[in-house]
Specification:
Blueprint (H helix, E strand, L loop, with lengths): L2 H33 L1 H7 L2 H11 L5 H10 L2 H5 L13 H8 L5 H10 L17 H4 L2 H11 L7
Helix pairs in contact: 3-7, 3-9, 4-9, 6-7, 7-9
Bound molecules: heme C.
């Protein structure tokens, strides 16, 4: 075997190795994307939201939602203060339908609670806790959505 053949074989081996690691990195990135709730929220279709919402909104009770809003500190960021920490709930019932073209009001509110990082309201940072999906039951999320839908602009 000539040294020329040796060299080209080594080159081929390096090329195969480089390709294999590139594939691995691409695969890892894909996995990370699939497991990132923000990315999942972004990719979710309104059909997916409708299915989950159907469960959440079987018998929503806004009065329970109002209590949950105090209990889970939604009010601390969204009701108290001047709206610089978080958008105030005032007017949200009407604004919710206009925030995201592909989501109706209830779908948007659901996404805002369950995947807060999927979409940020203009002018705000990604400061909302992103663990409410673990802390609240689907029924409680439905109650909160019903409560948020009581905030009309003129109220
Ligand atoms: C630590 C502060 C904080 C807490 C606690 C918090 N949020 Fe938020 N929330 C934010 C911020 C900041 C935004 C704006 C950025 C964004 O869109 O995620 C936001 C956005 C939202 C929006 C979208 C509002 C709009 O005008 O479109 C909804 C709905 C919402 N939060 C509901 C809730 C509910 C319900 C709770 C309690 C279960 C809660 N938040 C708790 C900080 C908070």
């Amino acid at each position: 075997m000539t040294s020329q053949q040796d060299k080209s074989r080594a080159r081929r081996r390096r090329l195969v190795l480089a390709l294999a690691s590139a594939c691995l990195v691409a695969f890892a990135l894909l996995l990370a994307l699939l497991h990132d709730p923000a990315a999942a929220g972004e990719a979710a279709t309104s059909a997916a939201y409708r299915a989950e919402l159907a469960i959440a909104l079987e018998a929503p009770d806004w009065i329970i939602g109002e209590k949950l809003s105090a209990q889970y500190e939604c009010n601390a960021c969204h009701m108290e203060g001047d709206g610089s920490t978080a958008p105030l709930f005032a007017g949200l019932a009407d604004a919710a339908a206009t925030r995201r073209e592909q989501l109706d009001a209830e779908q948007y509110l659901y996404e805002a609670i369950v995947f807060p990082s999927a979409h940020l309201v203009d002018g705000y940072t990604d400061a909302m806790p992103n663990n409410y999906a673990d802390r609240l039951s689907p029924t409680e999320i439905g109650d909160l959505i019903a409560y948020l839908k009581t905030f009309h602009a003129e109220a």
